[in-house]
């Protein structure tokens, strides 16, 4: 799902897309989110949530950076 904010295009990821991208179960992602360790979801409707793609990708980039520091 794409949102246009002026000249900025914001892509929203579904729960399934987040699961495929980060390889965590939805339950684990929810635990990380609740602990403040994963980007917050966006309420799109009464029964629909999503995550801002750029925030999830930034989270993944931080994981990669931590890997480089630890090795």
TrEMBL record:
Organism, as annotated: Yoonia sediminilitoris
Q: What is this protein called?
A: AlpA family transcriptional regulator
InterPro entries per the UniProt record, alphabetical: AlpA
What single Pfam family name could you report for this chain, choosing any that match? Phage_AlpA
Q: Which domain of life is it from?
A: Bacteria
Q: Which Gene3D superfamilies match?
A: 1.10.238.160
């Amino acid at each position: 799902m794409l949102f246009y904010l002026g000249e900025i295009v914001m892509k929203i990821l579904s729960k399934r897309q987040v699961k495929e991208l980060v390889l965590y179960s939805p339950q684990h992602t929810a635990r990380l989110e609740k602990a403040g360790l994963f980007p917050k979801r966006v309420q799109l409707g009464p029964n629909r949530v999503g995550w801002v793609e750029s925030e999830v990708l930034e989270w993944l980039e931080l994981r990669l950076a931590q890997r480089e520091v630890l090795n």
